Amino acid sequence: MRVSEIYASVQGEGPRVGETTVFLRFGGCNLRCPGWPCDTQHAIDPAFRKEWMVLSPAEIVDQVDRTAKLAGAQMVTFTGGEPFLQNNANLEQLTDMLQGKGYGIEAFTNGTFLYPEWAVDNISMIMDWKLPGSGEDPYNEVRYQNIKQLDESILFHSVKFVCKDEEDFDTAASLWSMLPEKTRRAIHWYYGKVWNGDVTDAQLAAWVMQNMLPWKLNVQLHNYIWPANERGR
Fold first, then answer.
1. Which CA distances in Å does 62 have to 58, 65, 187?
2. Which tens digit of pLDDT belongs to each residue from 49-76?
3. What total number of domains does the chain contain?
């Protein structure tokens, strides 16, 4: 498996914000988000490939375990890049091994790979639904299939919308409104701004309230604690 880095930090996004977690950052991504620069170029740009480690699931578990014990972490976050770009069988084995040691697992993912059946009942997903400002397709069909799986899962899952401008917000609200009410209730919804983008948290919060949307503000806590996009944070 291609691994960019493994480190402990405070979770800055999603339902476990503020919780100490071990970040397992995989190398490689199928998207480039040309609308704004990705904040983890070292995990997506092939120019950094020589930095990536090639590790077996057992080797990853060993590094995660040592890192978690030093920080007191009980959660592991799969991130990237795109975690589901990795070999499916290896990812399932890694998940089983980590759960066997008592770790909870969540994954930050762009949702463009169909989630395996085993994954949606064992990993808490935070799906980053890309909007027009990212330069990627907000209407990717695989995301709709994944949303259906998350709706039917035994776990609670999340979706986050990252907005560059009002067009992005309007697109997000439209995408959400077109989903079945059952799905909207089953999934946790988050919204936030592109770091250093034009729109502000205050503007987004005002639009959410004006539209009476049951979404939660996602502020990327780690970027307020440490310098924005600092590696290993």
1. 6, 5, 33
2. 999 999 999 999 999 999 999 999 999 9
3. 1
